[in-house]
């Protein structure tokens, strides 16, 4: 089972929504096994990943709420099923904004209990939202498959949630 709904196809879609040229420098916040890093590198980008529990090559051990990289180091930040489980979505969004150069792109998909609140948090962190998509049906399929396999998907234990995709630009 992939580490997030939609697997590699979904990662490619998020990267495409950033509209960044080849050679852009990316960070994957919550990189896990590094699958998005490999896709970014295949597309001609430079990519780094950070995760509390790295499970693949190229992923550094660390907390993406306090990244060891200088401000403005990246053109793009990607995150899939990670911001919510960080325990502090506003802090994660602010850290992404710090790490991005002005005009840099944040693309992420995640679960949320309140889409309107998440939208507000994204804007407060300094981003203009360029695209939002509700992918809750894909999340439900993913969640049911995980339950069937007796796995705990992303450590999420909510009765009602939405799964949304955001493409944002740092202002």
Q: Explain this structure to me?
A:
The protein is an alpha/beta fold. The chain contains 5 helices and 7 strands, in the order αβαβββαβαβαβ. The chain has helices spanning 7-18, 35-42, 89-99, 115-124, 136-148, and strands spanning 25-29, 46-51, 59-61, 74-80, 100-112, 127-134, 162-170. A 7-stranded mixed sheet has the order 3-2-1-4-5-7-6, sandwiched between helices. Strand 4, helix 3 and strand 5 (100-112) form a beta-alpha-beta unit. Helix 1 (7-18) packs across helix 2 and helix 3 (89-99) runs parallel beside helix 4 (115-124). It is globular. The relative contact order is 0.18. The model has no long low-confidence stretch (mean pLDDT 90).
Provide the fold topology.
Blueprint (H helix, E strand, L loop, with lengths): L6 H12 L6 E5 L5 H8 L3 E6 L7 E3 L12 E7 L8 H11 E13 L2 H10 L2 E8 L1 H13 L13 E9 L1
Parallel strand pairs: 1-2, 1-4, 2-3, 4-5
Antiparallel strand pairs: 5-7, 6-7
Helix pairs in contact: 1-2, 3-4
């Amino acid at each position: 089972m992939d580490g997030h709904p939609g697997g590699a196809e979904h990662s490619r879609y998020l990267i495409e929504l950033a509209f960044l040229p080849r050679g852009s420098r990316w960070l994957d916040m919550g990189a896990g096994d590094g699958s998005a890093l490999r896709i970014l590198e295949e597309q001609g980008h430079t990519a780094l990943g950070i995760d509390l529990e790295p499970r693949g090559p190229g992923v550094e051990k660390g907390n993406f709420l306090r990244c060891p990289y200088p401000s403005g180091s990246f053109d793009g930040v990607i995150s899939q099923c990670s911001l919510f489980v960080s325990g502090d979505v506003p802090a994660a969004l602010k850290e992404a904004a710090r790490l991005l150069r002005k005009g840099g792109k944040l693309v992420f998909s995640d679960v949320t209990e309140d889409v309107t609140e998440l939208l507000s948090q994204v804007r407060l962190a300094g981003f203009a939202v360029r695209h939002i998509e509700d992918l809750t049906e894909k999340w439900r399929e993913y969640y049911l498959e995980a339950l069937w396999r007796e796995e705990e998907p992303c450590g999420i234990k909510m009765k009602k949630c939405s799964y949304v995709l955001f493409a944002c630009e740092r202002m």
